[in-house]
């Protein structure tokens, strides 16, 4: 089976983001980003998802950069999957010190996002990633008081859930194509 790899660029008046993503990687990353916390979160996503991610991201402000990084990474994720059948769904609960976060994904091309996140910027990242990748994404903060821990646990859980959901299958997991029984 061919590796699920894609390279993608997104350039606007506000940002310049390039991503190389290998879903069948080993968790290697090379992230150069103007926003150090975003850099750390993309590296966390790569490591816990076992995805190889190279990203260069620069921009005029944090909001634009976080949004465009999420859109570029999400679009790359969707293109790398290339409509091949995968396990599709996964739910992961991740503890990190005071934080306990659950992430559930469904790779179904019906984008939806319901996100508990105390940091508006990373709430926006998750929503932008879900919309551009076409996945259903639920993030539930079960507990926690340190915003850094909650956001980081979310990225760990997202990477792990997507790793589980992208395991290849021989056929699509759906009942929509089955004939009706009379």
Structure explained in plain terms:
This protein has helices at 36-49, 62-81, 120-133, 147-165, and strands at residues 5-11, 15-22, 29-33, 52-59, 89-96, 99-106, 112-115, 136-143. The strands form two sheets. It has a four-stranded mixed beta sheet, covered by helices on one side. The longest helix has 20 residues, at 62-81. It is globular and about 40 Å long. Strand 7 (112-115), helix 3 and strand 8 (136-143) form a beta-alpha-beta unit. The chain is an alpha/beta fold and 182 residues long. 40% of the residues are buried. Helix 2 runs parallel beside helix 3 (120-133). The mean pLDDT is 94. 37% of the residues lie in helices and 31% in strands.
Q: What is this entry, summarized?
A:
By secondary structure, the chain is an alpha/beta fold. It has helices spanning 36-49, 62-81, 120-133, 147-165; strands at 5-11, 15-22, 29-33, 52-59, 89-96, 99-106, 112-115, 136-143.
Number of strands: 8
Number of helices: 4
Q: Which whole number gives the mean pLDDT?
A: 94
Sheet bearing the most strands, described?
Answer: 4 strands, mixed
Q: What is the radius of gyration computed over CA atoms, rounded to a whole number of angstroms? A: 16 Å
Shape: globular
Stretches where pLDDT is under 50 for at least 5 consecutive residues are none
| Order of adjacent strands in the largest pleated sheet | 1-2-4-3
How much beta, percentage-wise? 25-35%
Task: Decide which structural class fits the backbone.
Answer: alpha/beta
Distance between the termini: 38 Å
**Helix percent band:** 25-40%
